[in-house]
Write a structure and sequence with these properties.
This protein has 19 helices and five strands. It is mainly alpha-helical. The N and C termini lie far apart (46 Å). The structure holds zinc ion (ZN).
């Protein structure tokens, strides 16, 4: 699809209009397209955001030295591991997962244990990518999948709690690999992209080296499992999301690193590499013109739409800003793309409403309460989506079951527990 080709603007876009469509009274980074409503964003005296400053730093870093450091860390882990696994690699099936496995196994001859927390919203493409990676690298794998009813109930609770649909994924991705590290006594966790790149909350000059048990809770999950207990979610339901205790973590000596702090990270090049070498596939993603980020999840468009409703920008603004920084787009082209994709009502919203029993009015009324103060009086335009998504917006496992049981209308396949919950939550 031409719209997924960075640097190419779809014909219907007129980048001259972008200024009229910027949100009034909001400061945007003077170099990229990120607005001040981004959480934790800081600017220098020229009005340049932290992520833009990090991308400058990235060019001046001595990557040869950093790579040496990485080799030392991995060699040390290998020498201490004995017959146990050398490290844990948390993977989702995204392109970073395949790249992490390539680096650890092919470049450094490590023997990792791959660990996946499943959000249970796998796209067909994402499921293929995960299974393909496991086959290509002959890697042992442990996966945890919360049940369908629990995922549906948490998706409802999550919106009220943190203003997006994905608490279970934010929390599970943080807690599950840590639990496995403690249980299997494997102290080293190896993530992919640097935090400097993905969130702008750290810089390359001071990467987060020390392992931080509560990192994921603080930056993405926001609420602890206990905070979510309500009339349709018990503390027993939420047990899988509890973090190990500090004592348990210290007894094993768990540490975590991001490969992106040690080797030059280039999303575009890495995507081409894993595609051409290992058959990794991108797909059409809602809410962006790029098809390689979060490709494993059917609900990414929903997550990013709620970000737009809260903060006035979505995934396309984020991707456009990355492309502006690396010179693939002008800032004007970036704004034009962001305004087209961020504002579209995603198809995933229909799936969300179905699994939670929420009406569209309820959804928008919750989101209005979650809007940041700066945007309280700003009207956020919403555009209808004028095309069906190429990837079916339904978990691949539900598609598979519907196919084998010959269920034509996918809505009939809604799990029975859902009806009870709907009744419970609406009393
Ligand atoms: Zn910037």
């Amino acid at each position: 699809m031409e719209s997924q080709n960075p640097g190419q603007i779809p014909n219907s876009l007129n980048s001259d209009d972008y200024e009229k469509k910027l949100l009034s009274g909001i400061h945007y980074c003077t170099r990229c397209c990120m607005p001040e409503t981004q959480e934790g964003v800081t600017y220098d005296e020229m009005g340049v955001c932290q992520a833009c400053q990090s991308s400058e730093q990235k060019i001046h870093i001595n990557w040869v030295e950093r790579e040496k450091k990485l080799r030392e860390i991995l060699e040390e882990a290998k020498s201490k591991a004995g017959d146990n696994y050398d490290c844990i690699v948390p993977i989702s099936g995204g392109k970073d997962s395949t790249f992490q496995l390539h680096v650890l196994i092919k470049v450094y001859q490590m023997k990792p244990l791959a660990v996946t927390f499943s959000h249970n919203w796998y796209s067909e493409t994402g499921w293929y990518n995960l299974q393909n990676a496991l086959q290509q690298f002959n890697v042992d794998h442990i996966m945890f999948t919360p049940n369908r009813s629990l995922v549906n109930r948490l998706a409802k609770r999550s919106l009220e709690g943190i203003g997006d649909s994905c608490w279970h994924c934010h929390a599970g991705v943080g807690s599950f690999p840590l639990k496995i590290a403690v249980k299997f006594r494997i102290p080293l966790l190896v993530w992919g992209e640097s935090i400097a790149e993905s969130s702008g909350r750290a810089s390359y000059q001071c990467p987060v080296h020390k392992f931080d048990r509560d990192y994921f809770t603080r930056v993405s999950a926001k609420l602890s499992p206990r905070d979510l207990v309500c009339d349709y979610l018990s503390s027993k339901d939420l047990y899988p999301f509890e973090l190990p205790s500090i004592d348990e973590i210290e007894a094993v000596g768990v540490t975590g690193i991001h490969l992106g702090d040690y080797i030059f990270w280039d999303d575009e090049r890495q995507t081409e590499f894993v595609r051409d070498t290992y058959g990794w596939k991108e797909t059409e993603m809602e809410g962006s013109y790029k098809g390689y980020k979060s490709a494993e999840c059917i609900m990414a468009g929903m997550h990013d739409f709620t970000c737009y409703l809260k903060r006035g920008f979505g995934r396309a603004t984020f991707h456009a800003s990355v492309d502006v920084r690396s010179g693939l787009l002008t800032r004007e082209e970036g704004f034009a793309l962001a305004q087209k994709y961020d504002r579209e009502r995603p198809e995933a919203l229909d799936y969300y409403l179905r699994i939670t029993g929420m009406s569209e009015e309820e959804f928008f009324s919750i989101m209005r309460k979650k809007k940041v103060a700066k945007l309280k009086d700003v009207d956020l335009p919403i555009l209808p989506k004028d095309r069906a998504n190429r990837e079916q917006i339904m978990p691949f496992m539900e598609q598979l079951i519907a196919k084998h049981r010959n269920i034509k209308d996918v809505r009939l396949h809604t799990p029975p527990q859902y009806r009870e919950i709907k009744g419970e939550s609406r009393k």
